[in-house]
Specification:
The chain has 245 residues and is an alpha/beta fold. Helix content is 37%, strand content 22%. Helix 6 crosses helix 7 and helix 6 crosses helix 8.
Length: 245
Amino acid sequence: MTVLSFFIPSVVPELNCWQVYRVKVLLIEDDKKIASFVAKGLQEQGFVVDACRDGDEGCEMALEQPYDVILLDVMLPGRDGLSILRLLREKQLRVPVILITARGSLNERIEGLNLGADDYLPKPFYIDELIARMHAVMRRSGGDSASVLRAGDVSVNLLTREVKRGSQMVDLSAREYALLTCLMRSPGRVFTRTQLQERVWNYHHDPGTNLVDVYVQRVRRKIGDDPEQPLIETLRGVGYRIRAS
């Protein structure tokens, strides 16, 4: 088994992208190497990860953008992790927060939990343990209703990855699922082909490819989209969006 710095690779069967819910994660970690390992490990499992290495910047991102879970180091340049946590809770932001740090004293853990942290994970740790803890805090904080996206009669359960049109199950591939959830998270927002390639395939736009268009057609076919009143709308020359209710 190969050890990568602080983060030890998975010792349980690897999860495929389609086996985990696709959530948006904010990672605030000042160690560049550690942050890279964690971000890469989560992205390989289908998570969307925004990472920053400065406490002030991380605090601003946490306040201005919606995240499903925040991974927060305690020792940071600028504003420290505990003060970020305190501010989030003072502003009544209930986003789940997992504190991660090399400092694991009892008093620090107690302080973090008393300030409103949902969990505490000392370094080093397994990526699989981190993912399991993320699952747990999301279930505790949001319940089933917070884990379901809805657009028209299409629903996506982010925890189980079940996609339904009405009461009928829809079988999507990993990329189809990622594309649909990306659109459904922001009803009415137009995504360009470049933005969808970056978010779903993690690479920059190739003007010579029709990859996005092909996958949109696949998703439309599988969910039984009505061409007269499509759930996934096309804005010619621009991109795609989910029709706002």
